[in-house]
Amino acid sequence: MEYADDTVPSKRFIYEHLICHNEFFPENNCAIVGYTPMVAPNDKKPTIIQEWIERKQFAFQNLNHLKQASYNYFATCNLSLKTIFLLQYGMFDENYPLAAGEDIELGERLTEYGLKLYYNKNAQAKHIHPMPFKNYINRYVKMGKSKAYISQINDFNTVSFKSSKNKLSPFKDCSIFKKCIFFFLYTISVICTYWGYIKEKSK
Prior knowledge:
Mean pLDDT: 86
Oligomer: single chain
Number of helices: 6
Low-confidence stretches: 155-164
């Protein structure tokens, strides 16, 4: 099966977003982020790299249903907010050099104007995003380059793109073997992000 993009919504996807906006969080400054597990094409079991990205970057394990989340969870692959709030306080930064962290940057800006983000675990969509090791490396090099761009347009030199406040949470509830693999992938992500940052800053 071919997909136009990498996110496939469930049958109740729109309903779950709408009910949150209409009944639970009707205020203009409220946004909803849904549950978007990573899967391999054709609904195959996610690879260990995909599993790690879901645990580390999306970190749904740290969220509670219908509770508030920080802007670090402003993942636009499964997110809705009021148009009036978006138009009033900010859109995507079109000068962003890469598709890496630009949604988190927008979420941070909107939070400064009072955005409140809530998690609805029932607003589900499959994230069909193949991630061979080469793509994994490129992903974090791009994240580093994006951090360099952010440091140039803000008064501070670092921006956190991590979704998890609890750095140990991605390692919980898994085997020793997976913990070792996850630690290796974490180390690679840190090195690649730093390398991308230095490369972009040296231009």
